Amino acid sequence: MTDLPGVELALNPEDLPFFDGLDRGELCVPWCTHCDDHVWPPRTRCVACYREVHEWRSLAGTGEIYSFSVVHRGEGAFAASTPYVVALVALDGGPTILANVLADDPADVGVGRRVRLAGPPAVTSGRGGARFLLD
Amino acid sequence: MAARRPSAYIAGIYEHPERSIETASLATVYVDIVAGVLADAGLTIDQVDGFHTSLTPGGMVSLADTLGLRHARHFDGTDLGGATYVSSMATAARAIEAGDADVVLVVMAGLPRRGMFNRAAPGPHAVYEQAHGSTLVAQYALAAQRHMAMYGTTREDLAHIKVASSYHASFNPHAMLRQRVTLEEVLEQPPIAEPLHKMDCCVVSDGGGALLVVREEVARSLGKPLVGVIGHGETTRNWSNGRPDLTTTGAAETGARAFAEAGVTPEDVDYASVYDSFTITVLLSLEDLGFCPKGQGGRFVRDGALLSPNGVLPLNTDGGGLSNNHPDMRGGMIRSIEAVRQLRGEAHPALQVPSCELAVVHGSGFSLGSRSMSATSVLVRES
């Protein structure tokens, strides 16, 4: 099982805590303390109450696959990594986020399967995304 | 059926006949399309006083110059992706109703086979897709996979949509893919982003099309069948702050609103043009528009339900984006044009719906798996 490539991303300041967190093996999301809810994708204001976001929370990094696709035709840095798995992962205590699932056999991946964060992405250039392993 | 009266009429339609344009400039494609739509309606460029388009090189000021629009007093360059021109048809009618224009030209063109198509720059949240190698097909695949897991929908169910599309396209001399395909052939195709395989995806074609939406007095002077817009709805869907619902699209809202405004129900519909960027786009839209209950789309599309003229719901009789044409990666225009052909009685004789009086057109823009636009319009033919 090999890791996936890093990608040159045009990140805004509000994206950095999430991607920097991944580099430490953590899953961090912005949190609105007024609504007591996550804000996803990250923004500097809560889209429910429109108050400014001042807090980021580190989640457990576990969750469940909401949906997934085994991609056979990738683009850019991912073109050489097919087949790979793109998934929407419903995080425990957090948002449902787009991610990858690293699996030796993509046939093992399924909706409802439990997953956990794989740890820091091993990339040599660009930024790595959220990689999960099947539990 | 107690449909309301149209606020304006679609007096001109034109679909560029080519699917792969080797040398002509985009400007030439635009002026050829406008020549075609003016000829269809029997109007001249000097009668055009309203102008709707979407993303276009140089913006609409440049396109107005290219087209020689001298009397335009109403402009709309809204970008709803592939849903745009379903929306434009209705917003042009509203502009006419408001007195802003009498003859509105709605035009689009693109040459994606030569790498020239109109698309907004990536938004701020595209980085979350790029970081994970999530392609456009993968995003629709996420919607398809979720529907399969929730409702037992199968690849074979989706394949029925492509089979119907290819049957219709076999009658269209301009269709990009005219070969009829079987369920087995669709299922045998290589995967692009599972569960979507090659024939679940629309074609990439050059060209474009146009509509002329006109005031009632103008329409009555032209001697064409009177086809008008009587209902419309549009909305957007997205990841909903990290709580996406990939099995329900914006069509659930736009269809209900369009039918309510029109004073009709899905049971009254004689013909449907439903955006088919992917087979799953059709299946989800049919459920959400109310043609079958949620989760029953897979069952609904079997047994020739979408075939014209004898199916329960004749759909995309030109072959749709899956087989005919998807110019500029935006299918809303061509879907709208085929609905007008059916209501005029100008569809291919083998596929013409008898006594076609009421049609629905549904457009779906951007990506159902991340951020999407929906637009639904209800069209009527006045006797």
Can you tell me about this structure?
The complex is a heterodimer of chains A (135) and B (383). In chain A, a hairpin with a 4-residue loop joins strand 5 and strand 6 (96-102). Helices cover 6% and strands 34% of the residues of chain A. The model of chain A has no long low-confidence stretch (mean pLDDT 96). Chain A has one helix at 16-23, and strands at residues 27-32, 37-38, 55-59, 62-71, 84-91, 96-102, 114-117, 131-134. Chain A has a five-stranded mixed beta barrel with strand order 4-5-6-8-7. With 135 residues, chain A is mainly β. The two termini of chain A are 15 Å apart. Chain B is of the alpha/beta class. Chain B is 34% helix and 18% strand. Chain B has helices at residues 26-41, 59-67, 84-97, 126-130, 136-151, 155-169, 183-187, 216-222, 251-262, 279-289, 297-300, 320-324, 332-344; strands at residues 9-15, 50-52, 74-76, 103-110, 191-193, 196-197, 207-214, 226-237, 271-274, 358-366, 372-382. In chain B, helix 6 packs across helix 10 (279-289). The radius of gyration of chain B is 19 Å and the shape is globular. Chain B starts with 8 loop residues before the first strand and ends with a strand.
Walk me through the topology:
The complex is a heterodimer of chains A (135) and B (383).
Chain A: H1 16-23, E1 27-32, E2 37-38, E3 55-59, E4 62-71, E5 84-91, E6 96-102, E7 114-117, E8 131-134
Parallel strand pairs in A: 6-8
Antiparallel strand pairs in A: 1-2, 1-3, 4-5, 4-7, 5-6, 7-8
Chain B: E1 9-15, H1 26-41, E2 50-52, H2 59-67, E3 74-76, H3 84-97, E4 103-110, H4 126-130, H5 136-151, H6 155-169, H7 183-187, E5 191-193, E6 196-197, E7 207-214, H8 216-222, E8 226-237, H9 251-262, E9 271-274, H10 279-289, H11 297-300, H12 320-324, H13 332-344, E10 358-366, E11 372-382
Helix pairs in contact in B: 3-13, 6-10, 9-10
